[in-house]
Amino acid sequence: MRGPHNFLRLIRTGATFERTGAMAVALEAMDAPKSLRIAARVLGWPFQWLGMKGDPSFPPVTRALNALGPAYIKFGQILSTRPDVVGPELATQLQVLQDKLPPFSVTEAKRAVQKEFERPLEEIFSDFSAPVAAASIAQVHSARLASTNERVAVKILRPGIERAFRKDIDAFYLIARVVELFAPSARRLRPMDVIAHFEGVVNGELDLRMEASAAGEFAANTVDDAGFLVPPVHWDLSGRRVMTLGWVEGIPLNEVDALKQAGFDTDALGHRVLELFLSHALRDGYFHADMHQGNLKVGPSGDIIALDFGIMGRIDQYTRRVYAEILMGFIRKDYKRVAEVHFEAGYVPADQDVDAFAQALRSVGEPIFGMDASRISMGRLLAYLFEVTERFGMETRTELILLQRTMVVVEGVARSLNPHINIWEVAQPIVSRYIAENVGPKALLRDLSATVRVLSKFGPKLPLLAEAALIRQAALETPEPPQGTRSKWGWFALGAASVAAVSMAIQAF
């Protein structure tokens, strides 16, 4: 939706940021150039009376985003995963951004269920409660299935939320264009890409089929993890605007006194939370990226229960290996190896000096290892690491930024349960086990086997591909190359034919 709405929303955003004192804080956190600071003041200061006051008990930026509504709240949550854009201090503030709004009525919720499944609610649920939780995008109800009397959790999107978000996302794109127009130097922050990333995340959360799919994949990956539970998805009662999961009873992890009174070992729980997160990230490459205390409970049998799968992180196999080697290098204080891994992965340009980089990495690791165990933070280590690698020309890698942000949150949860937890003692066996299984001779044999399987599928076609390449090359080569030489295509054709022969031989064997 373009036109006057976007411009008015832009002015109101600036006015609210100015009125709450958030404008100066945000611009300073992003190290905004002078031209952008002037443009922002022009858009905000004269129209302060149009801005909203917000809750003065919140820090300025959090206060402004809460006042501006659901899309801004969600945008702030996404920005909390991007300290490379807003700076580490502001990212930390945004992690505790409130995502609670007044619920919509039970009548509207029932209407949404009936519309989604095209049948009366009474045929689906024998009981349907008032909202038990309400956030910026959806709210949750407790219900019982009419067929089995099983208790379930029913998550329903807010009425009209898609249209509301679409309006604000269009306004966000306008704000990004204004930033680029008035501050070309701020393009290093890639404002349009940041908004596009936000739009992609929100579009996923506005389709509850995607969250149900995330919950299903996460449950399948972790089914054998002792002491960990993901509520089952009721696929027949989940759609675009409604999702149904099994109901789980438990004590939220932020209620530490209640956990102790119930007889749970909070030190062991803290250890387990951190251990589970590292296992999911390294072993599966798929992790819960919003593991704050509100999304974790402890069940009656002591199981840690995960909730809310709107934000998940994914890391490919190669990146996991690199990440594990980097962590193990720091654990062993082998800074030269950490530097070499960065160069081997292509994270740092080859024209940089590996020894100078290793020295810079030592400046990251040594101060942290000199801390008391209760203050050692893997999240802080990764944040410092990103600062150093940026100076050596490493480009931002969004998936690692999300991992680092989640690591900070998980460490906070673990420390709230066990203030004296030693992060490295928990991490070392997990990282060591992963490296033993995925870096070295065993991994090499597994990779070669996978490569042969792939090539064997195309074995019958490889001779034809080689012949076609030779024919094309012969047509292009005028005059003929000197005797004893082959072009790169000729070598490719010869190599392809050889691989075909080997693949077929392996198949025959």
Features:
4 domains; 9% strand; alpha+beta; 4-stranded antiparallel sheet; 509 residues; 23 helices; globular; Phosphorylase Kinase, domain 1; 4-stranded mixed sheet
How would you describe this structure to a colleague?
With 509 residues, the chain is of the alpha+beta class. The chain contains 23 helices and ten strands. It has four domains: 4-99 and 164-205, no CATH class; 105-157 and 211-247, Phosphorylase Kinase, domain 1 (2-Layer Sandwich), CATH 3.30.200; 248-439, no CATH class; 451-508. It has helices spanning 4-20, 22-29, 34-44, 60-68, 70-79, 83-86, 88-95, 106-117, 121-124, 161-182, 191-205, 208-221, 256-261, 266-284, 317-331, 335-344, 354-369, 378-391, 398-417, 423-438, 441-457, 462-476, 488-508, and strands spanning 125-134, 138-145, 151-157, 228-229, 242-246, 251-252, 286-288, 296-298, 304-306, 312-314. It has a four-stranded antiparallel beta sheet. Strands 4-9-8-6 form a four-stranded mixed beta sheet. It has a two-stranded antiparallel ribbon with strand order 7-10. Helix 1 packs antiparallel against helix 4 (60-68), helix 4 packs antiparallel against helix 5 and helix 16 (335-344) crosses helix 17. The chain is globular and about 70 Å long.
